Amino acid sequence: MTSPLTSAGAGRSRRKGPAALGVRRAAARDAKRLTRLVRGSGAYQGPYAPMVAGYRVGPDYIETHDVFAATGEDDRILGFYALVLSPPGSDLMPELDLMFVADDAQGLGIGRLLVEHMRGRARAAGLDAVRVVAHPPAEGFYLSVGARRTGTVPARPPAVMWDRPELLLPV
Length: 171
Prior knowledge:
Number of strands: 8
Helix content: 10-25%
Order of helices and strands: EEHHHEEEHEHEE
Strand order of the largest sheet: 1-2-3-4-5-6-8-7
Shape: globular
Distance between the termini: 16 Å
Number of helices: 5
Largest sheet: 8 strands, mixed
Radius of gyration: 16 Å
């Protein structure tokens, strides 16, 4: 079954209308744009700024993990996510490692589009849930798309100076 936001085939999603969006597999050539989106995120200003200062989404990361970008008609990257699947035989749970939406594109449904796309990818990989360790201000968003809180991940100074909510997102 195909929803208005997702279409069958080739891992692409489309919505018709004036702000047509697509979801495509990120490529190594997108690394700089994804890095700029992370470093420029308004959600990581003030006390959260040190976490993304110097952060880099490299071509190797994009090629290793399921990284998908939401794009506009001009191929502008409006947001992206990275799903890290556990290696075979690993006890680690698959995790939504990164998810960012450009500040000027928030509130347009892009985050929900990316979550639904990620759920489809996770379902195709045989998963029934994905772990999310959320940026504290993003917890409400994840709860609104059906995640449930399972605990708290303690701070890990100097990289992460605050506790983070741990959630489980059913697929």
